[in-house]
């Protein structure tokens, strides 16, 4: 019986090749999107799901406010790790660890024929047995209790051990030497297996915690023991017992903070609070960052799932529309089936069989498209997501369930409608399924409107996102961005003489216009903030102040305008230049009024010697904040800023200048690789997520419009087929091609216009919510909606014209001869 269902279904499909192709294409696009996005979701939600205590593991983080502005840090003050377990009830395990700098130098003297030297290595931490009590690795050599119990010991992951000591077994690696930054000489005391699943805990070198006495300078160690010092390098994880609650632990942490740091927040006009972050939140929370340097975004994931759902719905709508539109063509078949004894259940199964076959074809096409999609979206899709995931049990089950759901969504309603025809009415040609008078026709119109609501929403969203990205990349940020590059000198070799030698070499190059030594560029991902206060005799103004360090050439390299006062000179030590925002914060209206005023900064007073124009120190997501430029020589400045001369027609000067800079670097810092970048390119990286969103929206828009137009073309083919004789009669009676095309297109064009009316307020609301994420943003102009609606209307008209013009130009004799 089942064989007959599918045999009949196959014959029916082959009789309707055009409609079958439209249905398969629409469904395949939706299923492909759903499959790839499900693979991304499976990948991201699987992170650190394998830890035995995962539901009880929490990351202790720090929330700050400075003058009411919130800041978040994934680290804690270092002393907290030593007292938290003993002084807070409800914690069964506590593991502090310290992340080494991300450009650690590693030397392996006896692993290969020549010593192995690795530069700019990250994922190195200082830890002890407490870390391995919470995160349970499988030990291939050594023991967790003793491996890191004394200084100068290191535990390696299996992969790292194989890199350092090829051809040696884990047991043979024990006792070998590994040197970090030429100062920390360690002996391997353990090798652990790599964690078994996707994880953000990607550390591969675990140096004993007590070795930090050698790794850090005396000043660093002293500073790290202060309760008022927080660094993201100092990490802390805890395990709660079964009775403990997050609220209770956080309340105890607040009391502990007040006990050891009674002046908490008072020194910087703010607050400092410890919070617990669940382990499962780490991979999705960019505010505290991850150790894997990649966070997934739940909002983006849900947005991707919504896009997949929309594309699937569009494909299903096409199927429903085309199947119900062809109801009249299948009516006599159904009537005859019922007359010879077929019941409604059998007819429903028959039509669902056809739907299932089409769905299976669509799934097979989707699987074939996956490698192309993964390759095309490289950079957006994590590299660990590969075609090999299609073999995983969860993916196979997903495809089976998706096939069943799509089959039911697409085929159940048409099957119910078609199976409900009465044999007598059908055989007397009294059905009107193809006319505009039936409930089925109104359903088709509603579904068509839904399709174009979705398509137009994507078009409008794509236009606005592109407009915002263009706005952010072209907005005047208050300083020169183009033709400026920055070179990061080695932080471990903070030798002022070497830096000056390097700068002097650069000054001799004719392609270079100006050079400065300082901290980061005016706009950068990192920033330094301190607490300051100003006393005007009547009141005290406390606020946080961002600091940029620069020499006398800093504002000249970046063309930052000096509004009043003077620039920094080499003799300055306790002077600063402030921006307009801080000027107004202090209550001054004119730049000249701030000159000569003193700002208290710790134990010193810095005099305002100049006022510069406002410039953005971060992305446009954040507003301009109070900022000061202080003399470079007061702090550790490791960045050389280079302004290049404009390119000439040949355009080879910059390339030559970079080659000369690289050669000069090798002469001064032969042991280090040069680390440089262009300022405008670093600023563009602020908006990588928006650019990825724009690309994704563009493809979603194209696919949604394509699917909608496929359905529109299918309906046009069916409509013109149903009205062939009417068209012939009208042509005989004198109607022009334009009139007939207008007649055939009018109803479907009106549906597109109705969709525009419905989607416009929805799109405006969604765009308004999205653009609130930017402190500075483009306007939501009326033409965004008008252009989106017009683009969809023109696309629909062009799509319809392929069939309507063909039908209008057909010879009426042929259409009337078959009567």
From TrEMBL:
Keyword Transcription regulation found: no
Keywords recorded for this protein, A-Z: Cell membrane, Membrane, Transmembrane, Transmembrane helix
Topology term for the membrane: Multi-pass membrane protein
Stored Pfam families: FtsX, MacB_PCD
Cellular localisation: Cell membrane
An example Gene Ontology CC term for this record: plasma membrane
Domain ABC3 transporter permease C-terminal, first and last residues per copy: 306-421, 703-808
Domain MacB-like periplasmic core, residue spans: 20-255
Annotated protein name in UniProt: ABC transporter permease
């Amino acid at each position: 019986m089942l064989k007959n269902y599918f045999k009949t279904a196959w014959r029916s499909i082959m009789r309707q090749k055009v409609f079958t192709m439209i249905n398969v294409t629409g469904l395949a696009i939706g299923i492909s999107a759903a499959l790839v996005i499900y693979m991304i979701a499976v990948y991201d939600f699987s992170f650190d799901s394998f830890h035995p205590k995962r539901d009880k593991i929490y990351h202790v983080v720090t929330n700050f406010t400075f003058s009411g502005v919130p800041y978040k840090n994934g680290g804690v003050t270092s002393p907290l790790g030593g007292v938290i377990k003993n002084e807070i009830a409800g914690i069964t395990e506590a593991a502090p660890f310290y992340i080494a700098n991300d450009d650690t130098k590693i030397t392996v003297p006896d692993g290969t024929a020549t010593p192995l030297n690795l530069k700019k290595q990250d994922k190195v931490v200082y830890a002890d047995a407490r870390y391995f009590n919470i995160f349970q690795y499988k030990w291939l050599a050594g023991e967790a209790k003793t491996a890191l119990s004394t200084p100068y010991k290191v535990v390696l992951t299996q992969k790292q051990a194989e890199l350092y000591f090829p051809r040696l077994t884990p047991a043979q690696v024990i006792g070998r030497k590994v040197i970090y930054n030429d100062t920390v000489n360690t002996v391997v005391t353990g090798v652990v297996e790599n964690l078994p699943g996707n994880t953000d805990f990607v550390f591969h070198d675990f140096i004993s915690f007590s070795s930090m006495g050698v790794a850090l300078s005396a000043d660093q160690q002293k500073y790290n023991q202060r309760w008022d010092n927080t660094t993201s390098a100092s990490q802390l994880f805890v395990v709660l017992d079964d009775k403990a609650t997050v609220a209770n632990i956080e309340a105890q942490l607040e009391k502990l903070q007040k006990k050891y740091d009674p002046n908490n927040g008072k020194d910087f006009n703010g607050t400092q609070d410890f919070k617990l972050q669940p382990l499962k939140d780490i991979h999705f929370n960019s505010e505290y960052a991850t150790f894997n340097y990649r966070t997934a975004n739940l909002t983006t994931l849900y947005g991707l799932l919504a896009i997949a759902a929309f594309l699937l719905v569009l494909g299903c709508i096409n199927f429903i529309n085309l199947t119900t539109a062809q109801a009249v063509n299948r009516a006599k078949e159904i009537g005859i089936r019922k007359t010879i004894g077929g019941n409604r259940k059998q007819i429903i199964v028959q039509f669902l069989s056809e739907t299932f076959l089409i769905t299976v074809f669509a799934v097979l096409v989707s699987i074939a498209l996956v490698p192309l999609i993964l390759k095309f979206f490289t950079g957006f899709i994590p590299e660990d997501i590969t075609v090999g995931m299609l073999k995983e049990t969860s993916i196979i089950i997903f495809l089976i369930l998706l096939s069943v759901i799509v089959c039911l969504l697409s085929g159940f309603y048409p099957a119910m409608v078609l199976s409900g025809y009465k044999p007598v009415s059908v055989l007397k040609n009294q059905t009107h399924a193809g006319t505009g008078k039936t409930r089925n026709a109104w359903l088709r119109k509603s579904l068509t409107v839904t399709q174009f609501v979705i398509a137009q929403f994507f078009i409008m969203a794509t236009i606005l996102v592109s407009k915002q990205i263009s706005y952010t990349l072209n907005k005047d940020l208050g300083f020169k961005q183009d033709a400026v590059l920055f070179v990061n000198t080695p932080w471990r070799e903070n030798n002022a003489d070497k830096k000056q030698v390097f700068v002097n070499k650069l000054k001799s190059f004719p392609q270079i216009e100006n050079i400065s030594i300082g901290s980061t560029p005016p706009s950068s991902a990192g920033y330094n903030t301190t607490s300051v206060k100003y006393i005007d005799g009547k009141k005290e103004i406390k606020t946080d102040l961002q600091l940029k360090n620069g020499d006398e050439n800093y504002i000249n390299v970046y063309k930052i305008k000096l509004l009043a006062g003077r620039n920094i000179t080499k003799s300055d030590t306790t002077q600063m230049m402030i921006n307009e925002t801080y000027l107004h914060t202090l209550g001054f209206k004119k730049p000249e009024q701030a000159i000569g005023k003193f700002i208290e900064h710790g134990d010193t007073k810095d005099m305002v010697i100049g006022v510069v124009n406002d410039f953005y120190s971060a992305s446009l997501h954040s507003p301009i904040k109070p900022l000061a430029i202080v003399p470079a020589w007061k702090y550790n400045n490791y960045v050389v800023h280079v302004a290049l001369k404009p390119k000439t027609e040949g355009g080879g000067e910059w390339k030559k200048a970079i080659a000369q800079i690289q050669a000069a670097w090798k002469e001064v810092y032969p042991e280090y690789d040069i680390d440089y970048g262009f300022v405008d390119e670093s600023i563009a990286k602020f908006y990588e997520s928006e650019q990825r969103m724009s690309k994704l929206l563009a493809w979603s828009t194209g696919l949604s419009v394509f699917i909608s137009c496929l359905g529109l073309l299918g309906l046009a083919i069916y409509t013109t087929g149903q009205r062939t004789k009417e068209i012939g009669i009208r042509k005989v009676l004198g109607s022009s091609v334009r009139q007939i095309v207008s007649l055939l297109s009018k109803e479907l064009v009106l549906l597109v216009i109705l969709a525009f009316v419905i989607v416009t307020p929805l799109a405006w609301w969604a765009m308004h919510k999205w653009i609130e994420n930017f402190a500075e943003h483009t306007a939501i102009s009326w033409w965004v909606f008008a252009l989106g609606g017009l683009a969809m209307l023109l696309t629909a008209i062009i799509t319809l014209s392929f069939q309507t013009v063909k039908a209008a130009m057909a010879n009426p004799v042929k259409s009337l001869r078959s009567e």
